[in-house]
Specification:
The complex is a heterodimer of chains A (about 110) and B (about 110). The relative contact order of chain A is 0.33. Chain A has about 110 residues and is mainly beta. Chain A is globular and about 35 Å long. In chain A, about 0% of the residues lie in helices and about 50% in strands. Chain A is built from no helices and eleven strands. Chain B contains no helices and eleven strands. Chain B starts with a strand and ends with a strand. Chain B has about 110 residues and is an all-beta fold. The chains are: A mainly beta (about 110), B mainly beta (about 110).
Amino acid sequence: DAEITQSPRHKITETGRQVTLACHQTWNHNNMFWYRQDLGHGLRLIHYSYGVHDTNKGEVSDGYSVSRSNTEDLPLTLESAASSQTSVYFCASGAGTAEAFFGQGTRLTVV
Amino acid sequence: QKEVEQDPGPLSVPEGAIVSLNCTYSNSAFQYFMWYRQYSRKGPELLMYTYSSGNKEDGRFTAQVDKSSKYISLFIRDSQPSDSATYLCAMSYDYKLSFGAGTTVTVRA
């Protein structure tokens, strides 16, 4: 079955370190998204991509970057991790309709 | 003001009751309206998806959209303990989703 997987599921890192969260989907979807979920804020869009080599900033993009070198993967990089980036991160993909399908999430703690 | 407003609850109902959830929004550009269900420590899963104003039914779930009032609702009939979850409304244009904060629902057996 097609799916979307995130790794790692849990990560603890130190302030100032670079961290990369992986997202891989096997649906062959063009659209991929990264969200963060925090209590009281719901899901907020960090970056998104409509296809290979396309990347766009979302609502809360400062301190994050993405690259799209193939259809299946959209890794999210925290350039210099900060405590404010402690959150649960969700990757999602979609086929070009409004629906998006989510991964299981990565729980990141920055200490 | 947030683009999408949703009362975070929490909401607690007895088994068999009707659960009523709603969201308001401010951006007229939103074209698609969705409800996601999220169980604890899991990713959101798509529950309902509508495009136009009106009602859409799927089993025990009914989604309503009123574009003129910028208001959407989700009703869960004959609620079950397995319906206990956080329900997120979401709205889309240009394929990007904007979410409400989510309403946590507990159905008591």
